[in-house]
Amino acid sequence: MNSSSPRSRRWRRSAAVVATLAAGALLAGCSGSSGGSSSRPENEIHVAVYGDATNKVEEAVVAKFNETSDVKAVLDVIPGANYQQKLQTIIDTDSAPDVFFNWGGGSIKPFVDADLLLPLDDMIADDPKLEDAFLPSVFDTARFDEKAYGVPMRGTQPVMLFYNKSVLEANGIAVPETWDDLMAAVETLKGAGVTPIALGGGDQWPTQMWFQYAYDRVAGPELFQSALDGDADAWASDDSKEALGMLRDLVDAGGFGTNFDSVKFTDGGSPALLRTGKAAFELMGSWEYSTQQNEDPEFAATDLGYTTFPTVQGGKGDPANLAGNTNNFYSVIKDTRYPDAVEDFLKIMYSDEFVQQQLAIGNLPTTTNTPDFLSTAADPAYSQYQFDLVEAAPSFQLSWDQAYPPAAMTPIHTAVAQFFSGTIDEDGFISAMQALQAP
Amino acid sequence: MSSVTARRGTLGSTGTARRAGRPRTGQAAVGRPGSVWALPATVFFGLFALVPLVATVWMSFVTWGGIGDPRFVGLDNWTRIGQDSLLLKSIGLTVVLVVLSIAVQTPVSLLLGVWAAGQQRARAAVVAIWFIPLLLSSAAISVLWRALLDPNFGIPGSAPWLFGDGNLFGHQGTAIAVLVFVSTWQYTPFHTLIYQGGARGIPAVLYQAASLDGAGMVRQFFSITLPQLKNTVVTSLILMLVGGLTTFETVLILTNGGPGTDTLVSPLYMYQKAFSSFDFGGASVIAVALVVVATAISLIVVKFSGYGEMRSQAEGV
Description:
The complex is a heterodimer of chains A (439) and B (317).
Chain A: H1 6-31, E1 44-51, H2 55-68, E2 72-79, H3 83-90, E3 99-102, H4 109-113, H5 121-126, H6 129-132, H7 136-139, E4 143-144, E5 147-148, E6 151-153, E7 157-164, H8 165-170, H9 179-191, E8 195-197, H10 205-219, H11 221-228, H12 238-252, H13 269-275, E9 279-285, H14 288-295, H15 297-303, E10 304-307, E11 322-325, E12 328-332, H16 339-347, H17 352-360, H18 370-373, H19 380-392, E13 396-398, H20 400-403, H21 409-421, H22 426-434
Parallel strand pairs in A: 1-2, 1-3, 8-9, 11-13
Antiparallel strand pairs in A: 3-12, 4-5, 6-12, 7-9, 7-10, 7-11
Helix pairs in contact in A: 10-11, 10-12, 10-21, 14-15, 21-22
Chain B: H1 2-21, H2 39-59, E1 62-63, E2 71-72, H3 76-79, H4 85-116, H5 121-130, H6 138-148, H7 155-158, H8 160-163, H9 172-200, H10 204-212, H11 217-228, H12 230-245, H13 249-254, H14 266-275, H15 280-305
Antiparallel strand pairs in B: 1-2
Helix pairs in contact in B: 2-15, 4-9, 4-12, 12-15, 14-15
């Protein structure tokens, strides 16, 4: 190659200059969060939401808001699977949404720490209903240092034990109330050639649900809370080991069959097992109901049973404790150009109309006026059951992967999956959890 | 590369000839193949390859989680590599996956490509069907196979005599086998196409001469086809190597690195570091390492295969 010709040298030099300049511009863009509200869109507030079936309610809310407001709301639907990734990538730029969906807790803690979010206390002082209209246990999930950073939207999503009524009946099994009942049911069902419990292990987060409840029932909510507060020794405690031992027994007894690592909830695999009677139980968030309803309304209405997680004898946790997604929240970016418009938008979240719309599609809002409209729900009995559970729950544990900051999600998912498939033992799990960065 | 130099030489001399023919007006350069012609490609390459590359190298020296300002930490990200057992595991897995893919894809696509080079109409029809996976996106292919391989409702559910309990994604060996199989299904058509083109370029007179000398089909394949396809094989190899080193979406959708971290290849690990753990510095280190390794491997292959000299195999015919 004739590389030393003056022409190619000149070329290379200018190419290098161009590349360096462009890189410089790019980097300046990356770190240019100096922002200020002026560079944000004019006469618009952007509302980012998690893309799924609930979006039709959000579209209606935005349309209603835009009828009366001069500042128009724009709904940005972000595909669900990558919501958190996309959010964190744009949140410190001028393209950040004014208002965004989140899970409270660890999912917004890094943004609070980086001083990116607007404390809502001024808005609440202006309109106390922005706080009072919601159940306190739910509202507090988005409170940090006595300041409110989120207003509940959508619904609460407790995790419950779902079952196929016909399968239990056919095998003469009563709905399990204790862990021992469950273990006995596993033996019976295995004998009948039915996978006792459907588990979408390929998704990993369904596996995590078993840990959340086992730990809560054995040790109470305090163990996880102290781990979250930075006490890594909590994971090595006797209670922790007992919970892990229970889970190990359940897995080894064949409670989940042998191929759960290849099954997913998200592609419809595990719900289909439950629906077709190839499995008897599934531990899942309240969305199991709408998932089944989508596939087979008759099954959801007549054959799908639901109950709370079994109690554990001698366990410290209250059997009424719940785990799952406490609620979803709207939080507000500090840089927003139109805080007044945002306040008006947030007020819709406790309106009668909004609550009715959520109930109609099977979501369960946690406003104080929700009970008034429970009879209008898609399935009143199911909504009433959940609402009573949430209202009576002494503790509602936010999903582990949402309670920790986003960076912990992959390590948690990997640890629970590896423990179930037997790649790591108790000690491996404990050290994996101890390695997590507390918020 | 000699061919580039040669072409430049020709263009240069044409230009000189023309310039001599008419007075220099300053517009002389217009419409003449010169460096301006390379501008669109150069700008594109610069903007979407060089700039991100430079930015990635720079990011490997900072700590940044996507919010706030990046903080310069010198070589911290690089020195952390040594303690990262997952990174070593992911590199090992990447190598295994690339080697297996090449070992399976090369013979299949070579044979198919040579077969497809024939002029018969039936072959054209079969080849057209065979090329369909080439038209589908990797994401669609991965979702499709994930559904087909569902242990309860997919193929394994109907063929327990072959798949047992169908837990293909639950063991490292079978999960890797699935990845190799799906990438073979997806990419073999492309490499077949390359071999088909290469095989069609072999002068028929070579085969005629070999027939006269009494060489059979197998002998012709090994003594004429294979040596004549040497450059094609190298091209295909480099594409498989570099493509394999950056395989991402297939793994993400099919196994997501599972079970546990048993199929966590380097590109997926890089993605998780950047967009799940929000450690852009650490992710950039992996990215730079991947670029260096892929470049080095390509250069080594080019050097030792003699590919760089680009000698036509048809010379002297």
